[in-house]
């Protein structure tokens, strides 16, 4: 259970300061998949950084399982935009990175296999396609066996075919592993495909403008259904409305 | 393999140009001004032992200076470049002292460290250290934020941040800067060995060897050849080090989907 109450985050101080988030309240149930959608610069990433303990709240509270988030939690993993791979580390070393930093000895072979990366362990990120790089980023997060998976635009800047593949992969992994997922995106269709509930954010400072229920998420061939299109249409109206 | 052939060809071109210059000078001035490669190498063979000792002494001096400049310049540069507070406090100091050529202070260094080995290493080190330090600082400032966040979000300590991100991210730039500075370092080596080498014999360094045999043109020139080989050696050494430590920089494009 994730509870965010009256969260505000301000970067910098004085006249140069920027209010990234203002009075954000939301809660996410255990095992739920939630999407956060909004225009660029609406503080979506900041919300994830606050949940991950990377950025302290300026005011308000962030709680996971009833405990205020202070610093990095081992049961929370973050997938960064563009995967955040270290180009000087091999696929295996990148996948192991978060584990090793936490002093954990677990093996990543299973995770790499699940993500179709077996046989590429000794390659460097520079030798991989963009789609594979994103999968390594996912492997690094999943290797931690997180209870909560935070995803910051994991499909940004991908071609449409690869994007759809990775979206399907994330859905499969969520169904299989049952983590709580928060996905930040500016892609409306992606939010509808992956979010059981969709939080629509306003531009800077970010605030929750509307919460859209999406009970059909995860159904077979959802992407091609009438319900999917209707929800995308609705969301687009909300977003364009809130951006005006 | 291909690179070796290229180097041999380049060496031949240099020898040909040298030979040409000797012959033209001889024809226009009517006397030997620049000894030919053959004459030079002939003399070098006769004095091989002396030349080798001078080469060894200079190489050791240069290596020691290079190691000290890395040992001090790398950590200091990375800290100043990466820690914002340190950068604000110390970067003006670096930019003020950076343009001071250490050779200009030779008299004072001479008084402070005497005429022995120490002062020579100090001058060469001072020159190389700044190159390494400034390169390390610049590289550390340019580290992409996402690399830092990736490691921080896993709960990395300051030390882990340096180990997994700051050092490997900056190494290619620092090694390249060091390689480019070899020329400067060799110049410094020559200056300290000639200016501060008057008491030693020709075996105490290539600079001293060149100076000592000023009036035996072939030998003096052989010392210059030795000096350029020394520079080439360190240049190649640093390049090999970069290729080995930063393999990831030299891997090919995407393979597989």
Count of spatially separate domains of chain B: 2
Largest interface: A-B, 32 and 26 residues
Task: Give the helix level of chain A as a range of percent.
Answer: 25-40%
- How far apart the termini of chain B lie comes to 32 Å
Largest sheet of chain A: 6 strands, mixed
Structural write-up:
- The complex is a heterodimer of chains A (244) and B (257).
- With 244 residues, chain A is α/β, with parallel strands linked by helices.
- Chain A has a single domain, classed as Rossmann fold, CATH 3.40.50.300.
- In chain A, 34% of the residues lie in helices and 25% in strands.
- In chain A, the strands form 2 sheets. Chain A has a 6-stranded mixed sheet with strand order 6-7-8-3-9-10, sandwiched between helices. A 4-stranded antiparallel sheet of chain A has the order 2-1-4-5, with helices on one face.
- In chain A, helix 2 runs parallel beside helix 4 and helix 6 packs across helix 7.
- Chain A is globular, with a radius of gyration of 18 Å.
- The relative contact order of chain A is 0.18.
- Chain B has 257 residues and is mainly α.
- Chain B folds into 2 domains: 34 residues; 205 residues, MetI-like fold (Orthogonal Bundle), CATH 1.10.3720.
- Helix content of chain B is 78%, strand content 0%.
- Chain B has 11 helices and no strands.
- The mean pLDDT of chain B is 90.
- Classes of the chains: A alpha/beta (244), B mainly alpha (257).
Give me the secondary-structure topology:
The complex is a heterodimer of chains A (244) and B (257).
Chain A: E1 2-11, E2 18-28, E3 33-37, H1 44-52, E4 59-64, E5 67-68, E6 76-79, H2 91-101, H3 109-114, H4 130-142, E7 148-152, H5 160-177, E8 180-185, H6 188-194, E9 197-201, E10 208-213, H7 226-243
Chain B: H1 2-29, H2 37-46, H3 48-82, H4 84-97, H5 106-113, H6 117-141, H7 145-152, H8 158-180, H9 182-195, H10 206-212, H11 217-245
Helix pairs in contact in B: 2-11, 3-4, 3-6, 3-10, 3-11, 5-6, 6-8, 6-9, 7-8, 8-11, 9-10, 9-11, 10-11
């Amino acid at each position: 259970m994730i509870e965010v109450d009256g969260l505000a985050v301000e970067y910098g101080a004085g006249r140069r300061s920027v209010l990234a988030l203002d009075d954000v309240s939301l809660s996410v149930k255990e095992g739920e998949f939630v999407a956060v959608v909004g225009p660029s610069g609406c503080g979506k990433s900041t919300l994830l950084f606050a949940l991950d303990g990377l950025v302290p709240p300026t005011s308000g509270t962030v709680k996971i399982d009833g405990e205020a988030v202070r610093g990095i939690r081992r049961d929370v993993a973050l997938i960064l935009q563009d995967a955040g791979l270290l180009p000087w580390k091999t696929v295996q070393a990148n996948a192991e990175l978060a584990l090793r930093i936490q002093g954990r000895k677990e093996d990543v072979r299973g995770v790499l296999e699940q993500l179709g990366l077996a046989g590429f362990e000794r390659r460097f990120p520079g030798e991989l396609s963009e789609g594979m790089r994103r999968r390594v980023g996912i492997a690094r997060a999943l290797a931690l066996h997180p209870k909560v998976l935070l995803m910051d635009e994991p499909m940004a800047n991908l071609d449409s075919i690869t994007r759809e593949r990775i979206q399907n992969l994330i859905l499969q992994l969520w169904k299989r592993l049952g983590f709580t997922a928060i996905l930040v995106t500016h892609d409306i269709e992606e939010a509808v495909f992956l979010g059981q509930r969709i939080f629509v954010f306003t531009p800077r400072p970010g605030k929750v403008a509307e919460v859209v229920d999406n009970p059909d998420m995860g159904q077979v061939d959802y992407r091609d259904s009438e319900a999917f299109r209707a929800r995308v249409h609705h969301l687009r109206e909300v977003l364009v409305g809130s951006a005006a | 393999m291909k690179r070796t052939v290229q180097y041999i060809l380049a060496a031949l071109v240099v020898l040909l140009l040298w030979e040409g210059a000797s012959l033209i000078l001889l024809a226009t001035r009517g006397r030997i001004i620049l000894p030919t490669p053959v004459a030079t190498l002939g003399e070098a063979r006769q004095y091989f032992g002396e030349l080798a000792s001078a080469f060894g002494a200079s190489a050791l001096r240069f290596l020691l200076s290079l190691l000290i400049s890395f040992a001090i310049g790398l950590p200091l540069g990375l800290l100043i470049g990466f820690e914002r507070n340190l950068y604000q406090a110390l970067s003006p100091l670096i930019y003020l002292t950076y343009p001071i050529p250490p050779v200009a202070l030779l008299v004072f260094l001479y008084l402070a460290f005497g005429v022995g080995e120490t002062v020579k290493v100090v001058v060469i080190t001072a020159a190389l250290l700044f190159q390494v330090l400034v390169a390390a600082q610049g590289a550390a400032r340019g580290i992409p934020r996402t690399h830092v966040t990736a490691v921080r979000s896993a709960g990395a300590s300051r030390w882990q941040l340096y180990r997994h991100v700051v050092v490997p991210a900056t190494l290619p730039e620092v090694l390249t800067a060091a390689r480019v500075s070899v020329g400067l370092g060799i110049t410094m080596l020559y200056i300290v060995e000639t200016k501060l080498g008057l008491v030693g014999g020709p075996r105490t360094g290539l600079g001293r060897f060149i100076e000592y045999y000023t009036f035996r043109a072939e030998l003096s020139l052989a010392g210059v050849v030795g000096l350029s080989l020394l520079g080439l050696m360190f240049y190649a050494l640093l390049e090999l080090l970069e290729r080995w430590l930063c393999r990831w920089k030299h891997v090919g494009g995407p393979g597989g989907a």
